[in-house]
Design a protein that fits this description.
heterodimer; A: alpha/beta; Rossmann fold; nine-stranded mixed sheet; two-stranded antiparallel sheet; 6 helices; globular; B: alpha+beta; four-stranded antiparallel sheet; 10 helices; 9 strands; about 15% strand
Chain lengths: ~250, ~400
């Protein structure tokens, strides 16, 4: 079984968010980069679990990004990926990225493609659907559980107020979310092993960029909190009326 | 006691990170995440109860914290010394006792077996020690011989195909839970030799040391030898004399130099965060000059020690380091960490003496760390002798 896991480089959740170029670009100065948690904790770790159950399985990783994505690729290899492919392009258009992944996937003949349900920076949630369309594969999104018996996968997805269980034959593309697996910490053996695992860099194929960002905006700064004594209802009413203008 | 959320953020005022490779950073991140996940939530409780969290032995083995510089063919990690140092820094950031467990296993048990053991000994012991299946301890210090190990009274006497071991060792980390002990004893010729003991050998006992106010989450004990028959194949063939145990101590002191800085970083980080949250006289205490003085001095000393450690690591990797350089780094790290822990504890006021924050635990732990593996005073004499050529030990 060949598994392809799509990983993306995102800012650490504690990174300070700011923009440059007239609020059209994310300011990457001083930012610590991590593997997008949905890609790492759920997609990649579930793939590793499948490989542990079937040692003949092979896990390939793919990321579309510049050379500064290589540390996160090495970490993914340290966790348990077998080899990695970096498509050497810096582009945030979902169609462009999905097309690059689809191009590599076409040649790889994968039985299973995993993505995270979204990236925690641009929150596009669209790569999985687009790649499956470009490859003509079935697509199951927001998977919280993935079981495999032979060639048939049973996938549980979260839906509003409950869950839905799907059955699908491989090959399939699945976007993964919480519940699929649990975060792992790469051990020293894995880190050492990642040194020599293949990391192939390929140039992007020519694809149109369909969208461009014209502006980012930060949410309004949090207003200060005013504490009102429990017995001072008059003051509460006054504040709600005069300052908040809610009543 | 409720588990504390570990909000640690590492101070790096001089961008020392830029001196590290991506692999070093990955090693550090792994150990830091392990500490946040498995150590911080439980350690205060174990320390308060003076109990050793035995489960960490397997966990540390799986993570690869035992013998990381021992070659992979013996189950080690094959990592460099900066990776090893960062590992010790992160473990001690969690607790000095946890770092002690890893230091003893790696530097004092696996290292002498690797450096001075026979191939059979290496194959028999190293993989099990690396994986955490077995825990090991190191017996050098005796009740009446601490800083002066060459006067030890523990002996081995030739008895044909085995030797007879008699004597006692004290202040032995890991002793109560160890399957294996590397013990240093004098033969009939007065030469110091290393022997490998296994739990269960007749006449070998490991009574627990109780009543410690320091390293309370680490198991300490004695090793008592009452006519223990040790097969001759358990003698380390590759070394005779005090240089055997002293070379182990150099390796362990190297880890302590990094580890103590980890404890200092946790104290500083805790005090800094507290100073921004705690308000007195209508503003955060971090806005007062006396608190800022403490924070500025703490960060300065941490930064200097980080740079010293990094340089020491480079020298270790290049095989150029001297035991005297390691001694200086160990002494410096322990001294600054002890002072930083005290200042941080004062900044936290009454909260500083509780288990709600890690500072008092670090402060008490560091009293052991500044004492073991060569006391502060002994390390001063090592540097003193190195620069003057005069021996002031006796």
């Amino acid at each position: 079984m060949k598994i392809l896991v799509c990983i993306s480089k995102t800012p650490d959740t504690t990174a300070k968010i700011a923009f440059t170029d007239n609020n059209t670009k994310f300011d990457t100065g001083g930012v610590q980069w991590i593997i997008n948690p949905y890609d790492e904790w759920y997609a990649l770790v579930r793939a590793i679990e499948l490989k542990e159950a079937d040692p003949s399985a092979v896990i390939h990783l793919i990321t579309v990004g510049a050379a500064d994505a290589e540390p996160i690729i090495r970490k993914a290899l340290a966790l348990g990926g077998d080899e990695a492919i970096r498509v050497n392009a810096d582009n945030h258009d979902s169609y462009y990225i999905a097309s690059q992944i689809a191009e590599v996937a076409k040649q790889g003949g994968y039985d299973l493609i995993f993505t995270g349900k979204e990236t925690i920076d641009y929150n596009g949630s669209s790569i999985g659907g687009m790649v499956s369309e470009l490859l003509g594969l079935p697509y199951v999104s927001l998977a919280a559980k993935f079981e495999l018996a032979g060639n048939k996968a049973t996938i549980t997805r979260e839906i509003e107020g409950g869950e839905e269980v799907n059955e699908v034959e491989l090959p399939v593309l699945v976007s993964c979310q919480k519940g699929m697996a649990e975060q792992r910490i790469p051990n020293m053996k894995g880190i050492m092993g990642a040194r020599t695992k293949p990391l192939k860099v390929v140039e992007p194929v020519a694809v149109d960029t369909l969208t461009s960002v014209v502006g980012f905006g930060l949410p309004p700064a949090k207003a200060g909190v005013k504490l009102v004594a429990p017995d001072n209802v008059e003051e509460l009413v006054r504040l709600l009326h005069e300052e908040v203008k809610a009543i | 006691m409720a588990a504390r959320t570990d909000l640690f953020t590492s101070p790096d005022y001089f961008n020392v990170d830029e001196l590290l490779t991506e692999e070093h950073k990955m090693v550090r991140e792994s150990v830091r995440n392990y500490v946040k996940k498995e150590i911080s939530p439980i350690i205060e409780d174990y320390a308060q109860r003076a109990e050793f969290p035995l489960q960490i032995v397997r966990q540390l083995g799986e993570l690869g914290c035992f013998g990381p510089t021992v070659p992979e063919q013996y189950g080690g990690g094959g990592l460099d010394y900066i990776s090893y140092g960062l590992m010790m820094q992160e473990l001690e950031r969690g607790d000095s006792g946890v770092r002690s467990t890893a230091s003893v296993q790696g530097s004092l048990v696996m290292f002498p077996i690797y450096a001075y053991g026979s191939e059979e000994q290496k194959m028999k012991y190293l993989p099990k020690l690396a994986s955490g299946e077995w825990l090991g301890c190191f017996g050098l210090t005796e009740p009446n011989h601490g800083s002066d190990p060459s006067s030890m009274l523990t002996t081995i006497r030739d008895a044909g195909d085995h030797v007879i071991l008699n004597g006692a060792k004290m202040w032995i980390s890991n002793a109560p839970f160890s399957q294996v002990a590397v013990v240093w004893a004098k033969n009939e010729q007065g030469e110091i030799q290393g022997v490998i003991l296994e739990r269960g050998m007749e006449g070998f006992t490991t009574p627990t040391t109780h009543g410690k106010w320091s390293l309370r989450a680490s198991a300490t004990g004695e090793l008592v030898f009452d006519n223990v028959k040790v097969p001759k194949e358990n003698i380390l063939p590759g070394v005779k004399g005090l240089k055997g145990p002293l070379s182990c101590l150099t390796k362990a002191r190297y880890g302590i130099a990094w580890g103590a800085v980890g404890a200092a970083m946790d104290c500083y980080d805790t005090a800094l965060r507290y100073s921004k949250e705690r308000e007195q006289f209508g503003k955060p205490i971090g806005g007062f000059q006396l608190q800022q003085k403490k924070l500025a001095e703490m960060l300065t000393e941490i930064t200097k020690a980080q740079l010293l450690n990094w340089r020491l690591g480079v020298l270790m990797n290049e095989g150029k380091v001297t035991p005297q350089q390691v001694s200086m780094a160990k002494r410096n790290a322990c001294e600054i960490a002890t002072n930083i822990a005290r200042d941080a504890r004062q900044m936290l006021g009454g909260m500083g003496i509780t288990g709600e924050y890690p500072v008092m635990r670090h402060m008490m732990n560091l009293e052991s760390v500044i004492t073991y593996e060569g006391t502060h005073d002994i390390h001063l004499l090592i540097t003193g002798m190195d620069v003057t050529g005069f021996n002031a030990f006796k």
